[in-house]
Amino acid sequence: xxxxxxxxxxxxxxxxxxxxxxxxxxxxxxxxxxxxxxxxxxxxxxxxxxxxxxxxxxxxxxxxxxxxxxxxxxxxxxxxxxxxxxxxxxxxxxxxxxxxxxxxxxxxxxxxxxxxxxxxxxxxxxxxxxxxxxxxxxxxxxxxxxxxxxx
Length: 151
Known about the structure:
Blueprint: H1 6-24, H2 45-61, E1 68-70, H3 78-93, H4 100-143, E2 145-147
Antiparallel strand pairs: 1-2
Helix pairs in contact: 1-2, 2-3, 2-4, 3-4
């Protein structure tokens, strides 16, 4: 990341801001009139939300051409890890009884009895997947850089 230019840091900042909004609005960590939350957020929802957004922004920046770029392969699964990690974090910080998928699968009592206690584990798993994706992308960029095109 030390070799990143303004373009990559700009994408990281924009990606972080976009992720903050995309996760924070439906989870009502950012108060808004579009969504409602039945149960107040837990104390750890805010740090998870911020860390997930930062990691997501950094992962997004690894896909931007800079002075060096990652040689893409057909087996590149890092993007999938990043998407799954962000999705797990979204489930983790959201209201357990406001999530329609959880309510359909478990019902209200199941959401509180089974899903709510699993949310911290989902948060950790999501951040681990995002960190893994970032580390993989950065290692690939450092180990196998391709020269930038002279346009």
